[in-house]
Amino acid sequence: MRSKQRTFIIAFIIGVTLLRLNTVSAQENKISIEHLRQKITALGLPGLTITDIQYVDSGSYQPAAFAKALDGLPAFCLVSATLKPTPVSNIRIALWMPRNSWNGRFLGTGNGGSGGNIVYDKLAQGLRKGYATANTDMGTSPNVDSSIGQPERWIDFGYRSTHLMTLVSKQILEVYYGKAAHHAYFMGCSTGGQQALMEAQRYPGDYNGIIAGAPANNRTHLHTGFILNHQATNETTGSRFSAADLSYITKTIVEKFAGASGGAPTDSFLTDPRIVKFNLDSLFKCGNGSKGQCLTDAQIAALKKIYRGPVNPRTGEQIYCAPPPGSENAGGGLEYQQTAKAAGLFYLYRWVFGAGFDYRHFDFDKDQAIIDSLLGPALNANDPDLSRFEKAGGKLIMFTGTADPLVPYPDAINYYERVIQRQGSLKKTQHFFRYFLIPGMGHCGGGSGINDFGQNPVTAAKQDSEHDVLLALVKWVEQGAVPDKIITSALGCCGTQDVRFQRPVYPYPEFPEYTGTHSNYKAADHPRGGVLKPAGKYVK
User: Whole-prediction pTM value?
Assistant: First the structure.
């Protein structure tokens, strides 16, 4: 008996000791910074320079040259590096790895605009959820104009930086943890959505699951839309809109059509703007029964050009879509694009035409052809053939807001419809690729409608697969649970995280349709397509 007790006690002590050793190893991570640096260097990754390695304690952390501290972080290991796949390349990446709360997964995150900075909010978002999380500046440091006349850096921005970030980060985390991630996911919006679709199209083995929000994938034509909007609002001295004008336009459209677009009559946004049909002259022209506020002839003429979208003046071919009605006063929209600040959106043209490019005289025929020929192959992620991603078992979720004035949702509809055509049916497409249109959401978030479903760095949504799009994707990939519905939230204004209301959203072409009470919505099929469709040569 004593012998058995002694054996048990010895086994127990050994077990506790081993458990403690494993716990200490996982929590404290005995690998010194120098040893970790040596192990990463030993990988022999070409063009890689480690610029920083730190062990950061749990709590708050403020990266250098970042405006705010990031709170609620677990203890993590930070690895920063520079990649030079070509002599002129300057790709920065950052990888944040939980020290004792890793969920075994890798998360690549997207950038925004022209890149140029590491998006620390996205790193923190993934870290808080247990992912080893990476981000890249897309190779446009130290400033976007450093890529003028540099085709290799255009490639870095278009797709190479994201792919290399993914490959290098996976190898570093395997060195750090002693094992590979069991699944890899990517989540990005806007430029991050472009990165997402590039990964699915070009590198189908990089990720098991991908979230592409408001994808700027039709890049060279999206920016042509910005030029049109700027030119239209600056054609005459009376063509511009005040903030009050834009609020008046949006309010008038929404009040007239909110219920007709599928939502509640009291909604402050449109559920499906495609249903909205109106005549600008009869709705806004001064003297047409208007009381008080109205638009001038010059403003109405500008709106007509904007809603028409950019067109090739020689051939009449549609180049890109137009911003949706009901988004006129949204952030990043006309109030921004009509001013000199819009020059920040025209970096693509400076890359090709030089720092002195005058966007006021852009030729929608000849200049567009030059931009497409030089930048299109590197920047546009328009390929509808996702068969390799599908065969690899990948799952893809795309989302756009119906009140996004910066990356209009009609372009995403057109891309999705081309994928359906390539696949042969909606059913075959939805087997691995689902698209959610978010009523009333602005660019990647915000707006007067729904704006939160786990895509934001800080979220008030319930943390489960019904409310969080990333968790829904993980469950789809790893358990086969198809996301037929996501419960979305409308957060309060002015920086508050209060939930004003919640509403289900469904995969396109289904929309949440009002059934009589604010808490009662059903999935309703709406017609597919129904948006401006660019000519074939403008979706390459």
Answer: 0.93
